[in-house]
Amino acid sequence: MLSLLLAAAAVTALIAGIAGAWSPCGFSMVDTIGTALGDVRRTVMIVAAASFTIGALAGGAVTFGGLSLLGRLLGHGATELRDAVAGALALAAAFADWRGWKIAPQIRRQVPERWRWIMPLPLACVLYGLLLGLGFTTFVLSFAVWALAGISFAADSAVLGVVVGVAFGLGRALPVLWIAPRLGTERGDRCLDRLALEPRLWLGMRRLDAIGLAACAAVLGSSSALAAGTVFATDPSADSADYAWQQVGGPGMLQTATATLSLPGRLPAVGGANVAWLSGHQIVISHGFPSPSPRTIPGPPHATVDALAVSADWLVVRDQSASGIANLFAVSLRDPARRRYLAGAGIPGAIGRPSLERSTVVYAYSSSAGSAIYEVDLGSGARSVLRGTTADVLYANPTLRNGRLLYERSDRCAQQLLLGSPTRLGVDRVLLRLPSTVFRDSGYQNGYTHAYNGASVCPNRMSGAGSTTTLGATALGESVAYVSESPLDPARTRIVRVRLG
Predict the structure, then answer these.
(1) Please, are residues 501 and 156 in contact by the beta-carbon 8 Å criterion?
(2) pLDDT digits 0-9 by tens, 63-108
(3) DSSP 134-164
(4) Cα 207 to Cα 1, 154, 175, 213, 328, distances in angstroms
(5) What is the C-alpha to C-alpha distance for residues 425 and 21, in angstroms, rounded to an integer?
(6) Neighbour-count burial of 185, counting CB atoms closer than 10 A to its CB (0-12 exposed, 13-18 middle, 19+ buried)
(7) How many CB atoms lie within 10 A of CB 77?
(8) Which residues contact 184 (CB under 8 A, 6 or more apart)?
(9) Whole-angstrom Cα distance, residue 311 to residue 291?
C-alpha cells in the first residue's frame, strides 16, 4: 500500500510544483535567473539555476519530510483515523482543483526582492529556491499542496515525506530551468508569454493534480479498510501478499491480494505460500487457500496447541499440557516423522509465540533468570541468542523477515516495538512506544516531606499506575509491521499497523 501511495503522491507533488510557476514568485525567478542581473556570462546563470534547484529540493524535503516525522509524534493507534482524514482531504482538494476554485486559505507573500541586490546571485537563488520549495512561505497555486501536507502527516513515513518534498521542489524548479536559459530568445519569450497569458494551462495542471489526488484517496481508502478488518483480532501473520489473523471469539481470517476469507479453524499462520490453522486436534496445512488437497498433521495427544508458524518446508508448534508444561517443536513438511525439539518450560508464558522464515525459527524465552530471543536453524540445529538480558528487561514476540528482526522490549518505563538487524546490536529503530504496565511508587508518602527521595526517573511517565494496554503478537510485511494490543478487556484486542519508512 505504501509504495502505491508514494508513487501517486510523488507524481501529484511534481505537478503541484509545476503549477506554482503561475505565481508572481515563479515569474520573478525566471526573470532573476534569466537576466542574471544583467551579467552576460552564461556561467553566472548556470550557477544561479543550480543554486535555485538545490534550494527548492531542500525546501520541499524539509516541509513534507518534517510533516511525516511530526505525524509519528501523534502516537500510534490512530492510523485508521489519519488515513480516513487524509483520504477525505485528498478527495476534497481533488474536487476543488478540478473545478478551478480560488485557493483558500491563500498565503499572499512573495520572495524578498532585495536579496538579489544585496547578496551574491547564487546565494540569493538558493534562498529563493528554499522559500518556494517550502511550499507555504509564498503563494499556493493548487489545493494539492495542502492535501499533500495532510497525506505526508498521515502516512507516518519519512521516505514518503522526503520523496513528496523532493518531487514538489523539482516541480517548482523545472519551469524556471526550462524558460530562464532561453529568456531573450524568441522561443524563450514565447514560453513566458504563454505562461502569463494562458490561464487554461494552469487549470490543466490543477486538473492533473486532481487525478493524482483521487488516486491517493483510493490507496488511503483501501489502507483504512485493511486496518478496520483487524479490530478485535490478534496473532497477526504475514507472508508476501497474504495476511492472516485470529478473530477474537471467531475463526481465523486470511486476506490475499484478491479477497478476505474465513478459515475453517483457529490460530492461522502464513509462510512460504502455505497457510496453516488448527482444526479440532488436527493441524491443517494448505498450499494456498482454498486447496483441493490440504495436508493434516495430528496435534499433540495430551496437550493443547496455542501457536503455529509455517514456511514452505517446516511447521513450528507451541503447545501446553494440563499441568502447565509448554513445549515448542518443529515438524518437517517434507518428512513429518522428522521433528526437532526446541524448548520446554513449566512456567506459563515462558516460551513466546514462534516466527518462522524458511528454515529459521525465532522465539523469546523468559524466566526469573533473564529474557532472550533465540534463533534456531532447523536444518542443522544451530542455536544463537539474538537479544538477551539478565534482569529488569523482557523481550517478546520476535518476527524474522528478509534480514530484519521485529520484536518487543519492555522495562519498568516503557514497552517498545523495535525493528533492527538480527546480528547488529545498538542500531534498532523504535516503531512504537507505550508506557509500561508497571505500577511505579512515588518514593515517598503523601503528606510527608520527601527529603529529596523520589521514584526512579522515566522519561515517558510519572509515578502511579501504568498503561492498561499491553503489546502482543507481531508480524512483519514488506512495508508494514503488525502488532496486537490488548486492553484490560482481552475481547477488545486489536491489531495495529505501523508503516515502515
Answers:
(1) yes
(2) 999 998 887 666 555 566 677 788 889 999 999 999 999 998 888 8
(3) HSSSS----HHHHHHHHHHHHHT-HHHHHHH
(4) 24, 23, 18, 10, 58
(5) 48
(6) exposed
(7) 14
(8) 34, 35
(9) 16
Q: Rg for the chain (alpha carbons), in Å? A: 28
What cell does 254 get? 486470511
Q: Which grid coordinates are listed for 495?
A: 491489531
Question: What pLDDT is stored for residue 229 in this prediction?
Answer: 46
Q: Residue 390 CB: number of other CB atoms within 10 A?
A: 9
* Identity of the residue numbered 254: L
C-alpha cell at 14: 511534481
- Residue 15 cell numbers, joined: 505537478
d(CA 18, CA 186): 22
Query: Which H or E element spans position 131?
Result: helix 121-134
Q: Which three cell numbers stand for residue 236?
A: 497477526
Q: Which H helix or E strand runs over 331?
A: strand 326-332
H runs (alpha helix) in 386-499: none
Grid cell in block for residue 405: 528482526
Contacts of 245 (CB under 8 A, 6+ apart): 230, 233, 234, 235, 236, 237, 252, 253, 268, 495
Give the separation between CA 47 and CA 366, rounded to whole angstroms.
62
Element containing residue 79 per DSSP (H, E)? helix 79-99
- The CA-based angle 127-58-199, given to 5 degrees, is 75
Report the 10 Å Cβ neighbour count for 324: 12
Sheet-wide strand order for 355-357: 355-357, 360-367, 370-377, 383-389
Structure-block grid coordinates of residue 84: 480516513
Q: How far apart are CA 306 and CA 245, in angstroms?
A: 14
Q: Write the pLDDT tens digit of every residue in 340-388.
A: 999 999 888 899 999 999 999 999 999 888 999 999 999 999 999 999 9
Pairing assessment for the beta strands 414-420 and 470-476 based on DSSP bridges = unpaired
Please give the grid coordinates belonging to residue 350.
515462558
Cα distances (angstroms) measured from residue 121 to each of 11, 199, 223, 379, 430: 31, 30, 46, 66, 43
Residue 310 has φ and ψ, to the nearest 5°, of -140, 150
Closest CA to 163 of 63, 83, 72: 63
